[in-house]
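[User]
Protein folding is very new to me. Any chance you could explain this protein sequence and its structure tokens? I have pasted everything here:
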Amino acid sequence: MAEAEILTLSCRDKPGITARVTSYLFEQGCNVLEAEQFNDQDEGAFFMRVEFHRGDTSADALRSGFAPIAAEYGMSWTLRASEAPRKVLIMVSKFDHCLADLLYRSRIGEFAMDPVAIVCNHPREALVHTNIRDIPFHHLPITKDTKPQQEAQ
């Protein structure tokens, strides 16, 4: 089976972006698996993420062919293999069940991620159900008085 790729992009919003991107992928023999888009109407910004099988087209050929489209729309964009792990910072509260789930899914290969740090507003000892191994842990305590400063970090 062809490798899956993920295209992410952002640019100023205007008509035709989704049609242009998906038409290009179709013309290259790609099959879209998932596509999401978001328009920030207040800022006039457009964001899109497309996961697709690239068929017989190489990733380099896709990049070369997409570059003029990206230039036409003034896009910031990346194209990467879907299996490539992403570096992530995980923010967690006192209840660590979601953290445990994320780390488990990463460990079994369901999530392609490389946790680079964990940030929590409670001390490490509060994470009673999760073995965070050697992932760096950062405790940022929050009180009513320090909340704005901590959230600004």
About this structure: The helical segments are 17-27, 59-73, 97-107, 147-152. The CA atoms of residues 103 and 133 lie 10 Å apart. The chain has a mean pLDDT of 89.
